[in-house]
Amino acid sequence: MIDTEEFAARTTPYRRELLAHCYRMLGSVDDAEDLVQETMLRAWRGYREFEERASMRTWLYRIATNACLNALEHSSRRVLPSGLTGPSAHPEKIGADADTVPWLQPMPDVLIEPETTDPAAIITARHDTRLALIAVWQHLPPRQRAVLILRDVLRWKAGEVAELLGTTPAAVNSTLQRAHATLADRKTEEEQITEPDDPAVRVVLDRWAAAFESFDTEALANLLKTEAVWEMPPIREWFTGRDTIIELITTQCPSQAGGARMIPATANGQPAFALYLNGEAHSIQVLTVTPAGVERVVAFHGSERFEPFGLPKSL
Q1: Assigned domain for 315 exists
Q2: How many domains does the chain have?
Q3: Do 167 and 224 share a domain, yes or no?
Q4: Cβ neighbours of residue 183 under 8 Å, at least 6 residues apart?
Q5: Could you read off the pLDDT of 146-184 as tens digits, one per residue?
Q6: Which H or E element spans position 245?
Q7: Residue in 300, 290, 294, 131 with CA at minimum distance from that of residue 227
Q8: At 18, which helix (H) or strand (E)?
Q9: At 223, is the secondary structure helix, strand, or coil?
């Protein structure tokens, strides 16, 4: 009979990193949580046959990776609006929500940050879940994606990846080269990496929240960089340029001074805010910010995105 307490003690410490791994593979918090549950169920069923030939961590990653690959056989890649079409020039014209598109979802840092006080480990974990990175990885075929994540993020050796995937080290290295070539052909967003708790960034964020809550579009314009980008999944249209974004906020944001509330959060290793309008959950804004201003906002619309952050649907 399996010792439940022993199994939990040995597997629970890996839940956070397994969730991050599944999210990198799938681009969905909902799917990643389901796959971690499936991983633990499979591990429970196979625990008696676990022979310690690999570490517990390696064994769990093998189960999780194969579960993700199986799931990806029957799903489409997750996207942001900027991965579908070019930017819109008409902020006054917004289409209906495209709920049938498999949209990328934001990952709350609180769910996956390592339980450590080591700043280097925390920074690394944040870097490897950035929205731009997750979005570009979605363009890779599933096995290329798995190899890239295992080799470049988790730093597994080619032989370890080969054993996990049932192939050869030479094949793993070839697959990794193809993945690198695919990504090299795509324009990736090389952001200046700034920490959400950087004092200079914190000033920009505080001013951003205050401007939204007072509906001060002039202040928002001063905080946006000239070539800023604004996306709003599940809405297909997305926008570039400070003036266009301000017109979008002015014409489409149903708010007035005092009607908005911005709750600070972090997602994908980036600063974020949960925006409530008139007390109701509206969107999770994930920001790319430097001390010089806001470069990109991905505002994930829908109250269902608040639950993973532990936030209510109304205040």
Answers
A1: no
A2: 2
A3: no
A4: 136, 137, 139, 140, 148
A5: 999 999 999 999 999 999 999 999 999 999 999 999 888
A6: helix 242-252
A7: 294
A8: helix 15-26
A9: helix
